[in-house]
Amino acid sequence: MKNSKKTNRKLLMTASMVTSLIYIGWRIFFTIPVGYGIISTIAGIALVVSEAIGVLEAFSHYKNMSTDKFKEMPEVSPDLYPEVDVLISTHSEVPELLYKTVNGCIHMKYPDLNKVHIYICDDKNRPEMKQLAMDMGVGYFGMAENKFAKAGNLNNALSKTNSPLVATFDADMIPTSNFLLETVPYFFLPKMIKNEDGSWRLRTAGEMDENYKIGFIQTPQSFYNADLFQYNLFAERNVPNEQDYFFREINVGRNSTNSPIYAGSNTVISREALEDAGGIRTDTVTEDFATGIDIQAKGYTCYAIPKVLAHGLAPNSFKSLITQRQRWGRGCIQTLRNTKFLFGKLPLKAKMSYLVSFLYWWTFLRRFVYILSPILFTVFGIIVVDCSLWELALIWLPSYLIYNRSLMILSGNIRSQKWSNIVDTIIFPYMIIPIFAETFGFKLNKFAVTSKERVVSKNAGITYAIPHILLSAVSMVGLWKCIANMIAYRSYGSIILIYWLIVNLYFLFMAIVFMTGRVNYRSEERFYAKVDVEIATPTNKFAGVTSDISERGLAVLLERPEFIPYDTDVDLAVNYLDYHADVSARVFHVGQSESGWKYSFKITHMTEENKRTYFQIVFDREHTLPKFIHSGFVKDVAEIVNGRMKHSHVSNRKLPRVPLNKVIAAQDGRQIRVINYNYEYILLSGVFGGEALTLSCGSDIVIYCIPLSCKPIENATLCRIENWREAAENPKLREFLVG
Q1: What DSSP designation does 464 have?
Q2: Rounded to whole angstroms, how far apart are CA atoms 22 and 301?
Q3: 274 and 158 Cβ atoms separated by less than 8 Å
Q4: For residue range 439-459, what is the model confidence (pLDDT) as tens digits?
């Protein structure tokens, strides 16, 4: 079955490459409108070059994905694990952010923890960071003046440490506890070999290859908050993080050409490789990308692995997102130009892989070409493609359909062509000029740190959408003219243009919706995870499981509507794996769901020891956002419409409202039906005016009710219970409520 699936996949990839080559060959030799003037010729060439580069990228991905992506991790004897320096770089981030990262590093497992040396590397020499390091028992390297940004910061730390392996983390990237155990063993690949029985042993002298040395192991950069594309388009339940496809598929596929990209964080690097490469590169704004190339050029083998072992914060404002992408794009081009990678010591396969990296940053100009091309013809009458409808149907359509299907399979169902186009359409107006400038020598020298501050207002702005609005308006004009032309002249060749314009309008619509922004009301991110919790009130204990958990609170599901006082703290014992944390918390909301009664708690106090353990319970896991795509044109629009129409409703209910529909006896002998009960109030069927009522809720439970002065609704009266606390703490009340 597995071989059959692999064969089918190979056939699909082959079909995609063949049909794409046929299509591009046809486009180059038969469809460029050379006879329609200089403008048509330029526009036609721009479109065919854009398509050809897209096919080249696809071929590169096909080839990388069709080979073995990564090696099996060796089983290493505990005594062989080497010493590791863990470097956490910080620039302007707040101590609260660093606390979580340092805490994650402290809790990393290792055969001998004395071999793990953790350092905060602060390039601003801030007293609060030095104090944080002291409080948490880790090392500190401060710099008064740092001319080389993150590269200078890390090089300073490297000059003061000496472990053979170095793990690097950005300030917000929190490692899971098994980070080192899942990365360090790869450095033993040159020294170990797997026996036929599946066991591992050290290689003999004759089996050693002196040229086989591991440079670095790169793990995915994963994020536990929804990125802007997920959040603003209400896709956080249906679409993976925008970076997942690169780190879990593309970068892993680059192992086949020994060109995985060093991303600067969540990485373990050989000190020997760093020293051979001359340290962290300082002549570029993407020091990590450049350093990775330097290490590979020195003959070291590097691997990217798909397993998520750390996660951090994605940019949560459009301005910081664009700043980040411009730095990445300009840094990539700057590095490849400075390195002269085509003439350097990299193997040919690696050079081709990095050439594709260079071409990727021209995706945004290509996206503009794809949007502009049908506009030029339908609005301005400029011929861009010289062909007939039948030629498109026979040559373009098969290539288009097979390519999209193969991309879905290649991406492991992480990314679709549609979603790639949405992302590219959103950011292309702000990438074209910086990429042009860097390509032609206008160098970006200033290193810009991606902001991790919480944005509580709308995270984008409609002014950013002006290019998209203008292109949408012109596309609408083109669509109207195209439809009118087809109706008037029965020009069925316009069908392709109509489809092209509609698809472009969809992408532009999504971009405009994105730019309208969305307010994030949460002060911290939630993980939707099941964690055992025991709740201890002054009179009772209840066992439950979380529905979600965050660093400042958690929501616990209980089977029954229990009384938990909201005006005083209760004790929560939180247990997950081998972690146990005791915290004090207070109920701030109670509601009912299909899974049970949901009690939301805000943490009010925890000791330092419990805080560190509790943070591990929260963060020592993969993010709980989607890992695979579940998206479609209609579904995407429906999610946006539903999200926009849904109004946030803040409920202050702090006790469960239990539907009862029971008949109970009053002191005067009357039988009164109880509609619902929430400890403090009771809703009774009937109208009782202002008379006080004494009701019996079973043996030994008597409640005294005062009808509220408000007008009864639908023949029911809401009463306040005078002795509600006494009744609520009576253990027999549970039988009354659930019996």
Answers
A1: G
A2: 36
A3: yes
A4: 888 776 665 566 556 555 566
236 DSSP 8-state letter: T
pLDDT in tens, 690-720: 788 999 887 788 999 999 876 667 789 999 9
244: three-class secondary structure by DSSP: helix
Which DSSP letter does residue 604 get? Answer: E
The more confidently predicted of residues 74 and 16 is 74
Residues 110, 142 contacting (CB under 8 angstroms): no
pTM: 0.91
DSSP string over 469-505: HHHHHHHHHHHHHHHHHHHHH--TTHHHHHHHHHHHH
Lowest mean pLDDT among 126-140, 158-172, 499-513, 701-715: 701-715
Tokens 């309208």, residue?
516
CA distance 177 to 106: 9
Flag the least confident range among 205-214, 299-308, 482-491. Answer: 482-491
The token duo for 77 is: 């004897």
d(CA 272, CA 445): 28
Specify whether the CB–CB gap between 96 and 103 falls below 8 A.
no
How buried is 521 (Cβ within 10 angstroms: 0-12 exposed, 13-18 middle, 19+ buried)?
A: exposed
Instruction: Report the distance separating Cα 116 and Cα 187, nearest Å.
Output: 16
**Residue 3 pLDDT:** 62
Distance CA 69, CA 60 (A): 14
The arithmetic mean of pLDDT across residues 178-207, rounded, is 94
Joined tokens for residue 684: 């009774």
d(CA 599, CA 606): 19
User: Whose structure tokens read 């991110």?
Assistant: 525
Residue ranges in 568-673 assigned as alpha helix (H): 608-619, 633-645
The answer to whether 88 touches 132, Cβ cutoff 8 Å, is no
- Domain 532-620: what homologous superfamily? predicted glycosyltransferase like domains (2.40.10.220)
DSSP helix/strand/coil, 434: helix
CATH code: domain 78-221+263-312 is 3.90.550.10
Tell me how far apart the alpha carbons of residues 36 and 489 are, in angstroms, rounded to a whole number.
22
Report the b/e string of 128-167 with b at 16+ CB within 10 A.
ebeebbeebebbbbbbeebebbbbbbbbbbbeebeeebbb
- Decide if 78-221+263-312 and 658-738 have a common fold: no
Percentage of the chain modeled with pLDDT above 90: 67
Cα–Cα distance between 565 and 561 in angstroms, integer? 12
Q: Which residues of 588-608 are buried (b: 16+ CB within 10 A; e: fewer)?
A: ebbeeeeebbbbbbebeebee
Beta carbons of 103 and 136 less than 8 angstroms apart: yes
Nearest to 576 by CA among 603, 546, 598, 609: 546
Rounded distance, CA 471 to CA 376, Å? 11
What one-character DSSP code corresponds to residue 396? I
What is the overall mean pLDDT for the chain? 90
Residue boundaries of the structural domains of the chain: 1-66, 78-221+263-312, 532-620, 658-738
Residues with Cβ within 8 Å of 248's Cβ and at least 6 positions away in sequence, in order, are 220, 306, 308, 412, 414
Q: Is the pLDDT of residue 1 over 60?
A: no
Q: What is the mean pLDDT of residues 341-354?
A: 87
* 658-738 fold: Thrombin, subunit H (2.40.10)
Torsion sign over Cα 515, 519, 522, 523: positive
Percentage with pLDDT > 70 across the chain: 94
Element (H, E) at 507: helix 494-516
Average pLDDT of 288-294? 95
CA 78 – CA 392 distance, rounded (Å): 62
391 vs 423: which has the higher pLDDT: 423
> Is beta strand 310-312 parallel, antiparallel or unpaired with respect to 579-593?
unpaired
